[in-house]
Write a structure and sequence with these properties.
Radius of gyration: 21 Å
Distance between the termini: 44 Å
Shape: globular
Bound molecules: 4'-deoxy-4'-aminopyridoxal-5'-phosphate, glutamic acid
Structural class: alpha/beta
Helix content: 40-55%
CATH topology of the largest domain: Aspartate Aminotransferase, domain 2
Largest sheet: 7 strands, mixed
Order of helices and strands: HHEHHEHEHEHEHEEEHHHEEEHEEEH
Low-confidence stretches: none
């Protein structure tokens, strides 16, 4: 008999991780799968970061760390916030965690009581919705369209906020769309947020450095709302360090203190060696390795967008950041192959996996059931082959 808690029974598995796992299993069976499912840079961690980690081991950085992270690391994060984002934080406003995912979970669990509404502009990253549910919050989704570049307007935000609204979670650059809010758009949202002083925003800026349009702007920079914004960042994307597990927040002191307390009962401080390596990464200036990766991502994005736009029926936006495209695939709903009808993006994703041997993620888990997420964090050679296969498979549907 299943005696698990309602909490875990009601939690959905991460769709991104599930698809990545499925494609690994098929690959292990000998199938030539190209995985465009996981949002993970295909580059190696830069050598100078690896050297810092080796040194940390030799210098015996092997014991428990302070729960919110070494002071030296939190100082390096404060310097980074100032250098890159024009944001002034003190070390007591920083909490380092085992990945940005944990940073988000900490903040949500610290702010949300059962019944509080959590505003999620859709498409949203899969884990926002589930973490909000875990805290017994009520996700309140704001729909967007591909024509609006998947961005919400200030009026939409104003209409969504009521006395139960406690938090909004969003990312810019966005996973899964690659969209980026302009400074003017952020400022307009900030004006709405400033009118509700008990309303908070998690600004997930983990794709900060994967921006093809120019320099990143942090939401918290709009001074009137700095006390309402929790800025999330981490090393996974900008430094190709997904496996090292390090994320962090810059937040009002009372929120940082709460996250510190939460983390002290859950995981304690993150890995000592990763923290020492993170100091090296965050102090790198100029960030040559990051710039190289960004260049590669941009050229892959151009390739993917131009190839997808040649495919009949796909509606494709041109994303200025992150490493995803999020085409609208609804023109294929109702078409069939071998007697099987494609009823949803999830069906189409499974069809592409089985027939084209290409792994993608259906938009349902991101709150946008008409779209399909394609991660282009893989080589141009793989991308060209994958796009050819996708195009062939789609042309077989009638
Ligand atoms: N936020 C977004 C938008 C992401 O795409 C990811 C990637 N998994 C994360 C947070 C979590 O990153 P981390 O690897 O630091 O947990
Ligand atoms: N952020 C990545 C993605 O969206 C990694 C997977 C995950 O952590 O969910 O694919």
């Amino acid at each position: 008999m299943n005696t698990l808690s309602n909490r875990i029974n009601n939690l959905s598995e991460s769709a991104t991780i599930a698809m990545a796992q499925r494609s690994r299993e098929l690959k292990a069976q000998g199938l030539d799968i190209i995985s465009l499912s996981l949002g993970e840079p295909d580059f190696h961690t830069p050598d100078f970061v690896k050297e810092a980690a080796k040194k940390a081991i030799d210098e015996n950085y092997t014991t428990y760390t302070p729960v919110p992270g070494y002071l030296e690391l939190r100082e390096a994060i404060c310097n980074k916030f100032k250098r890159d984002n024009g944001l002034e934080y003190k070390p007591e406003q920083i909490v380092v965690s085992t990945g940005a995912k944990q940073s988000i979970a900490n903040v949500v669990l610290c702010l949300i009581d059962p019944g509080d509404e959590v505003i999620l502009p859709a498409p949203y990253w899969v884990s926002y919705y589930e973490i909000a549910k875990l805290a017994e919050g009520v996700p309140k989704v704001i729909e967007t369209s591909i024509d609006a570049d998947f961005k919400i307007s200030p009026d939409q935000l104003a209409a969504a906020i009521n006395h139960k609204s406690k938090l909004m979670i969003f990312s810019s650059p966005c996973n899964p769309t690659g969209s980026i809010y302009t400074d003017e758009e952020l400022e307009a949202l900030a004006e709405v947020i400033a009118k509700h002083r008990d309303f908070y925003v998690i600004s997930d800026e983990i794709y900060e450095y994967i921006n093809f349009r120019g320099k990143h702007t942090s939401l918290a920079k709009f001074g009137r709302i700095k006390e309402q914004v929790i800025t999330i960042n981490g090393l996974s994307k900008g430094f190709a360090m997904t496996g090292w597990r390090l994320g962090y927040i810059g937040a009002p002191t009372w929120i940082a203190k709460a996250c510190n307390k939460m983390q002290g009962q859950f995981t304690s401080g993150t890995c000592s060696i990763t923290q020492r390596a993170a100091i090296a990464a965050l102090e790198a200036d100029p960030m040559e390795a990051t710039a190289e990766m960004r260049k590669a991502f941009e050229s892959r994005k151009n390739l993917v967008v131009s190839e997808l736009r040649k495919v009949d029926g796909l509606q494709v936006n041109d994303p200025p950041g992150a490493f995803y495209v999020f085409p609208d695939v609804s023109a294929y709903f109702g078409k069939s192959y071998d007697g099987k009808t494609i009823g949803s993006a999830e069906d189409l994703s499974m069809y592409l996996l089985n027939e084209a041997l290409v792994a993608t993620v259906g938009g349902e888990a991101f709150g946008s059931p008409n779209c399909l997420r394609i991660s282009y964090a893989t080589s141009e050679e793989n991308l060209k082959e994958a796009l050819k296969r996708i195009s062939n498979a789609l042309s077989q549907l009638s």
